[in-house]
Amino acid sequence: MKARITILMSVYNCESTLEEALDSLYNQTYKNFKLVLCDDASSDRTYEIAKKYAKKYDNIILIKNEKNLSLPASLNKCLQYVDTEYVARMDGDDISLPKRFEKEINFLDNNLEYALVSCPMIYFDETGNWGKGNAIEKPTKNDFKIGTPFCHAPSMIRTSVMREVEGYTVNRYLIRGQDYYLWYKIYKKGYVGYNLQQTLYKMRDGKDAMKRRTFKTRYYGFLVKNQILKDLGIKYYFVYSFSDLLKGFIPNSLMKIIRRHRMMQ
Asked: Domain Glycosyltransferase 2-like spans what residues (predicted)?
């Protein structure tokens, strides 16, 4: 039976978490998928672990970058191997809960007016689950002023739409905001997405997560958000984008406390 879902997975230096992430895919109740797994020039044993799984499962296409290309470019390489109706995402340090694919593909099969589906996530670290996110059920363009309207890692998208928007945009300003920009391109084309109100995905958000949120990435995020909100016709767009830049002046230790308090409520 031809696969209906292709999972795009770019991994970098995640030898300690990759097996758990891959096992969560093969524990799905929905089995009709293939996985395009790209090692983004890891310096640890990530590629060896990926190769072991590629030998075990014949639905894995394993590719390796000779140099680190970053997430958007690596995902675009994975997209070249897609010949299925749907594209799904997965990260090498997270966990897809068993019914994730079943719930998402059933939704898209039965709701043709939506281009993509995602869901809120459970957040966990080395001590266990510590928080749970929320997601607007039917985001509109106006919801882009709050932030990204969909979680990237648990998303599933119609391949035809991904082709139409030409995949991920690659530039130096999208170190962390490649998903926000993708949703913008999809909505700019007139499509909409939906958030299931079930948590079907667990995101690893431990002690190193805040280190990736540097002032540089906050500044780039401000520039991208400012452009997106302006282009979408959001009133007072600068106010919403500038508030994100202000977060760059708050110490990460304090931001972590604020974020965890919000997620735990």
From this structure: 6-152
